[in-house]
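re: ur question from earlier - yeah i can do the single chain one, its not a big deal. heres the input i used so u can compare w yours
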Amino acid sequence: MPRARLAPSGERRTPSVSRIVEGLLRWYATEARDLPWRRTKDPYAILVSEILLQQTRVETAIPYYERFLRAFPTVAALAEARIDDVLKLWEGLGYYRRAHHLQRAVREMVRLHDAQVPAGLAALRALPGIGPYTAAAVASIAFDVDTPVLDGNVVRVLSRAFRVPGDPARARTRRALEERARALVPPGRAGEMNQALMDLGARICVPRAPRCAACPIAEECAAHDHGDEQRFPERSAKRPAPHRDVVAGVVWARGRSRVLLAQRKVGDLLGGLWEFPGGTVEAGETLAGALQRELDEELGIRVAVGEHLVTVHHAFTHFRMALHVLHCRHTAGRPQTHGCAAFAWVEVERILDYALSVADQKVAAILLAEVRGRREPGR
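and the output i got, formated as tokens:
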């Protein structure tokens, strides 16, 4: 049975906003995580961290953040960089549109804001790829603007603390959460409060088995009072992710020293990354037939399909993929950019110099191991 803690009057208590604010700020003063972007007030570094942290865990983001700022330490440096170099540093992190949007945003800063991150919410929101959360986080943390934030961690804390009903993905629930978050912003200390809420959600008020005994605001938490913390936030049932079979070719040039890579168009999924060319297997097609059709449509070339190299399974946000990779030999047609941004004949040993998706990195590693194995004495 869920527990319920009653006030002396026999009624459940209403959470106190002032006590929540005091408790969170006191806790954050001693328990804040030591993160590299918290050691600076540089708005550009804070912006980079916030973009990296979208859909990415802190532990994963830290080494990317450090490498990224070493390579592109200023707005101007990133604005002038080649997108291939940017994507190579982003390689393996996923959600590559973030990298494109970040570079577009800093180029706007060069054009409109003297190569500086603008301080105002409206100016931040006007930049490409900067949404409400990122703008509010940068404004509050870097510029002390009194504005709340709502990310997944904050949504979970507020949903439980105030027992906010409804799916946070729905506009009505989102507005209710925004009102609660706004009420918690102490003048002049929004950055501290926002980061305290983030830390609490990441470390204490976790999705499963929240650590209520260690929570600094447990006494003011309505869900804890009712004993139904696990109920919040309320989520609508998700549909199972669809499955796609995709085929790609290791297209060998004559002499089998070089293979063909294609670069995806910027607006496509994984835009700007290089890949072993191919595409989705349509109903009724064999893998070989689908590969021949895709290479003709995308690059205008003909191939003779050979042995199967590997099948790589990978999950995207909205679908799951089985990537079937086949060796093939280029037989006719000069490559054209019909369905890709660019192409390159690449020495096998240099494939990993190109920015590849996680799935294509796995393919490249297996291909390299196979090629190097053939070169070993006695093989």
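Residues 1-10 have pLDDT under 50 and may be disordered. not sure if urs matches, ping me
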